Records
---
Amino acid sequence: MLVSQSPHANALADADAGTSPQALLERRARLLGPTYRAFYRNPIHLVRGSGVWLYDAQGRKFLDAYNNVASVGHCHPRVVEALSGQAATLNTHTRYLSDIILDYAEKLLGTCPAHLGHAMFTCTGSEANDLAIRIAQYSSGGTGVIITDFAYHGATIATAQLSPAAVGEKAVPAQHRIVAAPDTFRDHGRAARDFAKNVAAAIDDMHARNVRPAALLLDSAFSSDGIFFPDAAVMREAADHVRKAGGIVISDEVQSGFGRLGQGMWGFANYGIEPDIVTLGKPIGDGHPMGAVLVRPRLVASFGSNTGYFNTFGGNPVAAAVGIAVLEVIESEGLIENARTVGAYTAELLRTLKGRHGMVADVRHNGFYFGVELTAQGDEALAATKTSAVVEAMREDGVLISSCGPRGNVLKIRPPLPFARDNAEQLAETLDRALSNW
Amino acid sequence: MLVSQSPHANALADADAGTSPQALLERRARLLGPTYRAFYRNPIHLVRGSGVWLYDAQGRKFLDAYNNVASVGHCHPRVVEALSGQAATLNTHTRYLSDIILDYAEKLLGTCPAHLGHAMFTCTGSEANDLAIRIAQYSSGGTGVIITDFAYHGATIATAQLSPAAVGEKAVPAQHRIVAAPDTFRDHGRAARDFAKNVAAAIDDMHARNVRPAALLLDSAFSSDGIFFPDAAVMREAADHVRKAGGIVISDEVQSGFGRLGQGMWGFANYGIEPDIVTLGKPIGDGHPMGAVLVRPRLVASFGSNTGYFNTFGGNPVAAAVGIAVLEVIESEGLIENARTVGAYTAELLRTLKGRHGMVADVRHNGFYFGVELTAQGDEALAATKTSAVVEAMREDGVLISSCGPRGNVLKIRPPLPFARDNAEQLAETLDRALSNW
């Protein structure tokens, strides 16, 4: 096709860059099939990333206020160097002895309370949650897992069945129990206040139906549920109920971990909870496929000897080198402190928008994890439409965010950790413009 | 501790290199827990790999005749270059558009029969098998999966339940059926001849208990079962039985794929089977954490729109760059041809050992996948002990192999694909010495 035949300016520019988004979408549908869905009505064809910036095929620069995977910044040179150096030296598995995996495990466990004594390595957060459930069911002797009503915990069969956000509540097997997420905003925060009570009721209901509780599985930021940071005492009480019933407390830190919440490395610490198992993923390797399960040693003592677990790529020397580099960058660049201070500054800017736009009903945050709930005088469908429109408008205006929550009316903002004050200002100004257009 | 206080020469050398194997084992047990098990009574502390060679902390060189993950050779420079270059440029996920994932999907699907139209990317073979089962159950409406009696298909909850080699037959849920692996040696190959009949009986048994068949899931090399290459017509007949019953045929090519069997890229082709789903893992990225599901488009049409699937790291640009590099290396270095010709030469050398050592009962192979079955006049325990001893003796003599099979009496030999004739000779000579010591 001749470029001059293209009726759209965008297609023209894209043709210059090699491939139009439309052609890419068609090729995706043909080669990858219908499960591959792109962000934005006008999907972005990315070619480069650096720090908090992403660049498309036309050289347009986007401020990334969404990607928590490239957590220490896109293509961080120190991480890339560790990856490249180790990949050129040795990349085998954990059936051979190696120092680096032990150095990494030691460093990673060193960021946690001492009761989490063992680190086990996987390649994804899904695999980490899948393994955590396996360990919890094995060690508790129970089968039932308690989750929140719009939780997401992974894409394996077992974790998808514990992800109503992905598969719907009906696909959650009968032995599990769904409790209302601790929504701190809606209905004046009733579900958040009642959270421990609801967990206790779920346990009672399990007992009534002869289901033995295995675990309470919670994302410390309630990412899919709409991003909530409920009261610590209530969360501790919920954890206590589960422990008393013989269940295991699993903190899913795949989204909230590695300093994002700005108070320390882990979200569970904000609640004063001592989880029995902690699962890690997404930001753990700044994009490298890694996951981990940190666990109380006694929970895997008999699991280890009877069942065993081996993950071919999990904890290989390259993953360990990358993992160490990520921890070192978080430390040397003061990224937790940055998440705390610039996070607070960003929240302040977002809250001024609440004053200026009636649509902004609530601004919630911890560090660099923000939920901005939009409403439309009680019209839920309209609120969701507006939320989508704001996300799309911001994309067109050069800032990447997304939305979440069961009603799709919460802006989900979670930038890479090196996000600076001027980035925060650009985010807030762009959001201000997007909201003003309604 | 002063070096001169060490009573063992090995410990001395290790102390020079920084850490003794014993200290590493203790540190592993403390940090990683009991699921981490090392190969060999005298575990190897590796520090470097290159081509078919692995080097320990004392600079000792081992010929790798076991690792199928580093399939195009340890730390292949072209793969490392692709990895490093892409990791420094862009490493996001498939919610954005990118050319490289499509180039990779096209290249990968191009190695398969045309009916496998879509590629879906995961991070491990376990995730690939887990997703394949999910798609098979969804698209067939069935639940029951047929596997062989010492199969291994992964480490997620769902795939471990289909891995009697890992969890035992008792842990396989009631809706699944276990059939005897098509053992071409034992009992004069009866299980291999009867394989299709056994699969048909398993389907009948499902029907009798109101279980709807979902899939036949087979490793094309029967790697854990003992490494078998049964008659193609019987395998096709087994596949036909499953299809007629409404089930899906899944070829698990995690071990047998990417040219290892020497006839082409995929093991299923040797049987003339047209699988509905093919799962890939281990060698796909020469050590980089990757997996894939290749599937008939109609099987994911409604799965895609109703359930969806997203894998955070799966198919990211770095994985795609690595995957392309691996395919290019296989092609440019003629590695499939090498697996075929040097594989045949290696088999010839191994067969001469059969003549020289009564203990060697059977030598099976396709390309670079060898099963050498050892017996001890019908004493199974002794055969297993001898098999272990041979593996250990070879490790001490500088060649790495392992064992498999339900009775632990099959030497498992599957070198990286650049394995050369002189490597084959070293392998055979070392094995000759190990066998002679019995």
---
Amino acid sequence: MVKVGIVGGTGYTGVELLRLLAQHPGVEIVTITSRGDAGTSVCSMFPSLRGRVDLEFEDPLASNLRSCDLVFFATPNGVAMQQAPELLDAGVRVIDLAADFRITDVAEWEKWYGMLHACPEWVASAVYGLPEVNRVAIREARLVANPGCYPTAVQLGFLPLVEAGLVDLDHLIADAKSGVSGAGRKAEVSSLFSEAADNFKAYGVPGHRHLPEIRQGLSRIAGVGVGLTFVPHLMPVIRGIHATLYSRIKEEADYQSLYELRYANEPFVDVLPAMSHPDTRSVRAANTCRIAIHRPQGGDTMVVLSVIDNLVKGAAGQAVQNMNIMFGLGETDGLWQLPVLP
Amino acid sequence: MVKVGIVGGTGYTGVELLRLLAQHPGVEIVTITSRGDAGTSVCSMFPSLRGRVDLEFEDPLASNLRSCDLVFFATPNGVAMQQAPELLDAGVRVIDLAADFRITDVAEWEKWYGMLHACPEWVASAVYGLPEVNRVAIREARLVANPGCYPTAVQLGFLPLVEAGLVDLDHLIADAKSGVSGAGRKAEVSSLFSEAADNFKAYGVPGHRHLPEIRQGLSRIAGVGVGLTFVPHLMPVIRGIHATLYSRIKEEADYQSLYELRYANEPFVDVLPAMSHPDTRSVRAANTCRIAIHRPQGGDTMVVLSVIDNLVKGAAGQAVQNMNIMFGLGETDGLWQLPVLP
Amino acid sequence: MVKVGIVGGTGYTGVELLRLLAQHPGVEIVTITSRGDAGTSVCSMFPSLRGRVDLEFEDPLASNLRSCDLVFFATPNGVAMQQAPELLDAGVRVIDLAADFRITDVAEWEKWYGMLHACPEWVASAVYGLPEVNRVAIREARLVANPGCYPTAVQLGFLPLVEAGLVDLDHLIADAKSGVSGAGRKAEVSSLFSEAADNFKAYGVPGHRHLPEIRQGLSRIAGVGVGLTFVPHLMPVIRGIHATLYSRIKEEADYQSLYELRYANEPFVDVLPAMSHPDTRSVRAANTCRIAIHRPQGGDTMVVLSVIDNLVKGAAGQAVQNMNIMFGLGETDGLWQLPVLP
Amino acid sequence: MVKVGIVGGTGYTGVELLRLLAQHPGVEIVTITSRGDAGTSVCSMFPSLRGRVDLEFEDPLASNLRSCDLVFFATPNGVAMQQAPELLDAGVRVIDLAADFRITDVAEWEKWYGMLHACPEWVASAVYGLPEVNRVAIREARLVANPGCYPTAVQLGFLPLVEAGLVDLDHLIADAKSGVSGAGRKAEVSSLFSEAADNFKAYGVPGHRHLPEIRQGLSRIAGVGVGLTFVPHLMPVIRGIHATLYSRIKEEADYQSLYELRYANEPFVDVLPAMSHPDTRSVRAANTCRIAIHRPQGGDTMVVLSVIDNLVKGAAGQAVQNMNIMFGLGETDGLWQLPVLP
């Protein structure tokens, strides 16, 4: 049994990690920490876990995180870079679900996240945890930077096109829509029901933190810097990301086959038949990314549709997938729940 | 492995049965039938099952339902009473998720359901499939009448009070709220998103088909006819029932303990600590009923709050629970998924 | 033109007052204040008012509230009792949309609201602003306590029964459901979209602040103290209250006619035909209360259904109605917008 | 008073027309017809209109449509082309809210709508009712083809760019999201609450009927054929369209000023300040289109955000605006209601 700890378990990625790990056959949850809620039972905050998770939130300082094989950081940006190094130095492996180790260019990271990086030395050795791209490196990683939710949906959607170099890489467009849980369990006016329900809007069009992450990922895949317009939207859905991706075709190819072949052995990427339209609920509560490819009117614009559950393949589920790879477990262990529909 | 068939798999209880059975370790799904969609692959209708359910809908007449150990009817009212008898006669056990066998008084059934009963002789031998009341009889049952969604939430909520005879049984009140999936996957104006979203209403106040079912169940438990006012409401939630139950106290007692003791060994009924308020999402996609007991202002009116997922404990999950009991499987086999929250 | 000011205009009742007053033919909005947002233009916070409301939030201290004929307090509980007296002393009339002047028994108020009352002397002279009960007194009132949202729906629903003394007044039950905007525009976890959407729950069953207000109102109408069980619920709707009211009949009567006669001349109470079920959207964004009366199965339990928009008849609309009465305007002036459906 | 009739008043555009016309100072509603619901009172179907609309649905054949000054067709595609000609011949002016007269190229129309056109001769003389483009022609029109909802949002969003010829007209992209009421009040599984709520998907990517309409409109404005990729999505919102528009800049310009100048005198188009993100609720229930212009990262891709209420500026409101223009009324008469927020 892999002994795991969770730092910062009171947010949505925290409770989702608990949901998945509590059902995982190869894991023992040793501790879950929360500075603010130490002493509170997990189930009094999340009654959905009653009878299945018998833990109290512990103060991080008092907890036995160092005795874990693996610690997940489900904390706000800027926490893991402070606290992970001493665990790493003690031989504990770490998966950070926040952004601290995602951007290799530390100056770029500092610009977008508005703070100085506390441990630039660890950034270089962190592995970007997108298994469909980095599976081999994840296996040996001591520190995994779990991808953001938008970056997961967008990169998996563009991946085969960009790898094959079949489209204009200077003008990629990602029109992405996220459910409100992507904003976390923070008390903010913009995430209130009465603000977000029965409403839809774009946000962050001038610049969103996931832009440099996606650009970095696609550029690595392409082997050359890509140009990307990224427009995120907030939709009145609890869980789910729908990315609609546009690119200009440079070369003819059998795009449907390209995608099917690329993802043939990926357990968590499902390429739909031609002419399909995946809906976000078809992956609700599951670790699957579903993708459909279109070429409307036979023109030169490709349209790729990519959906994930932002809390699963976009966060906690992908973290468990990374854990499975890191510890030699079956990659789908604990991640085989079917989507909940309707 | 129990070999099961599903008649009528294109509705919400059908797809929910598939979700649960596809993850059940002791079951083989032999066939799923649909008159209208014979030849269609299940996954083209429900992409959430892609890669996990590899079946086509079959015409009921052409299917091998008779070779099953158990057949679930997830059909509209009035179908099972036509088709189940020949399967029963062939030795196949049957669980009907519709209402055909729920009401013992056939004349009463015919009044509320507006049709003649096709096999009154089977009504008497059917077992009402509420395990918390009828577990022993279910074990041997050839035909189980799976309870309605409202009746499950209301009966489990009132059960300890009514068994103990501590309240005025002539004036029970059940104010119940249901998610829209309770109306099924039928194309009806009143179930449209633009009608039901951002809206709330009562319906069927003069009389709802679940009234006689609840009254029958509670009267059996009480050993005397009970009086019940039942007001159902439609709420803009996909899954979930919230029953708020009112009764007049006749005798002092430790009500919290009464409930805790009654349900101490029930795997799917969770009595919350005093002063709690269960929310419907705390049981979303799970087979659990959560209950809280209140006595506001110390007065003589008891308030019981009871929540279930109408598609799970209120339909498909309870059917699987009944199957587990009937076939000597572990009662919680295949039903151990945690609720999905948020 | 009546010159009005609004104190505390950044919440939902504030913006709703602006929506209604900006379309009112007999009103000039002189000032709107907000301590925290002084200097901000109203439209930058509420773009729905662009081109129609050309005001900035002003600091309350710097504003010319004293030059108004009427000041609305759309502030949290406890503010109006501090700031209204000096305006009242200066001859400005006041409508408080919060709870400061609703409960005549100051000790009772202090118990439920958890603070000392700052001006008990004004409590006695305040008029409870439910026009259907207090129209004459409102006309001359210097200080109107605008009723709470639940109290409006529940009192209007019970009023004819209680006035006529036809039901058991010791055991009234109000099962009430509110949209999330009733909790205001405060950043609180429990009001987040991801908490409240696709979910339903009761809250405050042991005791809610609107209980004493409703009990006081119904007791005055009855001329005797009433017993009430009040269970509020949170539903995933932006605007709307649905009250389902239960009472035991003591005497036979033509209840439908009783209601129709009582409300025959009320412009904002609509008694539906027998057997109706009002939905909350049928009053969305309008100042109407719709009511239906049922006697299920011909038994001795009356069921009354009462719906309002909590921000209109339950707050800002009723305040404008009170203003109209106070200043001799047409009672329906500025309140004649049709509900928005769907 | 303009005497108007409505053909087909039982859908969402029909009831929205009634809401607007019932509050319009210069209009008398003479008749509303419905083949299927003749004899039913309008208010029994739409209780939101109780006390304000005192009409019964009439059989179209028995009605006095010919005595009207203007008849609105709020019917499915294919009805107006059958029934409008005889009214037009009788001197009645007509606004068709469906698609029958929107596409000038009859063969193209027949391809996309899958039926033969019943009166191609009227297509040529119909005026496309987008006032911001065709105001002068609308004034004299006998037959107005009211634009589709997506086409309104997309054309108003692209209009200044396309008029000025500043972007690559061969590769426009419109990523558009619609609320579910856009699908009408038809009983269809895909529009059910349990299908559309908490869900998001693209649809019609290979080709949607609004594509040729938008392409025709933009091509006329450009004076040259444009190339457009149009991807519609269904979002869990009742009312609202959000169009996110992408185009490649060919020439530098002050885009913000371009938009502000173009729409300076338009009463129903609101250009937001730079860096804004309009949300759909900011136009809920109002006839306004709000637009924001972005140029992310200073690159060569323009992003325009355009929102409308699909039932108002995208249907019934625009029809009333067209009526106002046709009959010399004030263009904003009856359309001055403020958006409902929250």
---
Amino acid sequence: MLTNWNPARMPEKDEMKLRLSTARKQLYDLQMKIKEHKIPVIVLFEGWGTSGKGSTISKVIRNIDPRFFKVVTMSEPTDEELRYPFLYRYFKEIPEAGKFTFLDSGWLEQICREHLEGKTDEKEYASRIESVRNFERQLTDNGYLVLKFFMQIEKKEQKEREQKLLENKDTRWRVSLFDQWENEHYKKCKKTFSKYMSDTNASSAPWYIIDAGDKKWAELQVMETLVSNIKVALQNQAHSVPILQNVFPLEPIPCLADIDLQDKILNDEEYKKELKQLQIELGKLHNKLYRKRIPVIITYEGWDAAGKGGNIKRITEALDPRGYEVQPIASPEPHEKARHYLWRFWTRLPKSGHVAIFDRTWYGRVMVERLEGFCSENDWQRAYNEINEFEKELKDWGAVIIKFWVQIDKDTQLARFQERQNNPEKQWKITDEDWRNREKWDEYEVAVNEMLQKTNTEYAPWHILESVDKKYARIKALKIVIEEITKYV
Amino acid sequence: MLTNWNPARMPEKDEMKLRLSTARKQLYDLQMKIKEHKIPVIVLFEGWGTSGKGSTISKVIRNIDPRFFKVVTMSEPTDEELRYPFLYRYFKEIPEAGKFTFLDSGWLEQICREHLEGKTDEKEYASRIESVRNFERQLTDNGYLVLKFFMQIEKKEQKEREQKLLENKDTRWRVSLFDQWENEHYKKCKKTFSKYMSDTNASSAPWYIIDAGDKKWAELQVMETLVSNIKVALQNQAHSVPILQNVFPLEPIPCLADIDLQDKILNDEEYKKELKQLQIELGKLHNKLYRKRIPVIITYEGWDAAGKGGNIKRITEALDPRGYEVQPIASPEPHEKARHYLWRFWTRLPKSGHVAIFDRTWYGRVMVERLEGFCSENDWQRAYNEINEFEKELKDWGAVIIKFWVQIDKDTQLARFQERQNNPEKQWKITDEDWRNREKWDEYEVAVNEMLQKTNTEYAPWHILESVDKKYARIKALKIVIEEITKYV
């Protein structure tokens, strides 16, 4: 893209002044509409070192109320950040509905740089491009406005700017070693940036190359692009988003009704013996995982009172608390609801070598959110694919993913509800909501079946835990966890 | 404490078994009461390397629902963490009301270790002890139950445990270089730990030394201490907390009524000229701050419509967006309200070299929370002192603190409210709440006067911005910011 790009004519001084003042006024007014229509906006500034990313951001934000935006500066990932999937530190920063996040460099810089430095080969580069495409599409599909600017300056211009900054000790820190390397290898870098932009130039999140040789002119281009895109976004809010074809490799999985719950029982003696042995085995595996820095994600979904809690406990009892965290997922809090629905899961991922156990998960999107109308039909239909992408991302990062559906029948649930109700110490475990959900059992069953069919991917299959006898389900879960982890250590 | 401690007699096997099972059952029941009474509990495990901190935690948490606790493992601070006050990473992890946080080592380890390694001298050590005392007291005063365990093992025992772990490649990572050093310098370390415990053995957050030579016995001691302390905490909830004497060095400051708002005006020409010069100057200082890694905290409080937003904007226009963040403070969200009221400010501190501008602040505790009854009288009365301590902590960390009160008179506010109401583009800026607050002007004035008198410390004094003419206030603010920063760079 960059290599065959032609800059537009820079307007005369008077025209520039007039247009700038118009754009500023418009942006000032539009920020209120953004707020009102609850549109989250991500503005990504990429480009050459010293091309004026920071200074352009600082001019743009003058027109926006400080309560409505955040500027995030991305430098090289820290050691801590390197222990997460590479998109983690970007996903973390996505704005709430009605607010802006301005990023001073982002995934273009990281991907191109690490590729230029030889840290990623062609295959890894291609996989990252795929991740970025999915990431940006997931954002725009879920109502985010994603604006991507590339600040373009010529080699000579960059050289001069760098030299000027290097001369003064208070500005020297602004020129990194990579900025200097970039200038020395300008042509090679340009080619890499250009390819990256072509690779990620989606219609829903296109690139805008900004002629950044003149600062005022650069500001004007950015401002006008921002303003016109916000206007479009405001008009497009009711725009429907296509449901992508589910192209992930799916495995067959039985319907809930076909799951045999009979005779899946264990007596106390067998249970105790197996439990002890399996927990010792898992404890040992946990040490290995830690040493080899493999992340593990275990997810639990299932009927109310199916025995998720007790099942999770039998897993965690075997683990060192320094290396795992249980993530109980309740209904989202306001700051979570205001963001992409996967945000609260991205931000709860384990770091490499750790185990995260999710007590309920992102599958809430296609169950409770679907049935209670917390999201639109379009939203939950799109979610199967989004979730498959999300789990693929985790898999490619190197995570072990183990997904459990804890299954009981309707009578068993009733018996357990009644027992909880009648036992003062367990009453806290049962709420009116549980009874209301129970009334919707049949609707849930339809949703669960669809979910299982559509997300039972080869790389992250579901495991059914028959839990009419909780002991049986616990032992089965432990065996599966051990088996899956063993494949990796 | 440690040097003159005598272990209790370890009970016989049968007795141990019985007592353990009782304690486990009690903890299981008590967790529900903790939840119900909304008590936040911090359980700190400190002690020798290989003394079994992690494994004891893992036994204790078996009795608690995973939704109600979090285990946090603290290792050496990262480079990122070192750019914040040393308590930052601990304050971040305090639990919500009704939940537990278990810490696998914490501030004892960090302080003693850095002192043993010669990273802190006696003076710095003393200042940290003071910080810890205030930190723990602030937590307990605000309803936190803080339990501190020290897991004690003898030199010989530690040596054997370390050797055993080092022999196996899957467990080798559990023994750090420091653990080994600790064993080699056991006596010296013991003295240091002992002194630290005496120094921080407050009645509201006392130390419990656990004889950790035998694992079951260690578990029993921890469990019984936990259970008995939770019972006490449940009985003590209505306990009143003494208001400490305000011993901070205070400067005199006029009452709001005595602030002369007349003739504090600037004409357009003077304003524009000064603004430009001052912003250029501030921009240069910002570079120096960044290079010297000095953190700056600028806070704004003032009447509604006093002109805080516009004032902040004139500051930020001069700054590089990579080095500052505006923190707009609205009413707390649920996850914030569930924690110590300073938590949401601790977690928003700038890192060294950065500027944080707070648009409203922790002073909400002694203004809106006081007047609207969002906290008890005891709570807000205690807050003056807590806030002085908090700001002292920031000052000692090396921060520049600049506190503004933006002052207007009642008539000016009315005029501005009316203008907002009549201007369609500004209507969003005015709400019913603003009108309600206006009715309480006199009560607020009393609260503000008390606040100014009680928190106008030498190290973090208030600055009054007379803002009937907003231009005047903006220029004055810029001058003060420049003056204060100049003292540091």
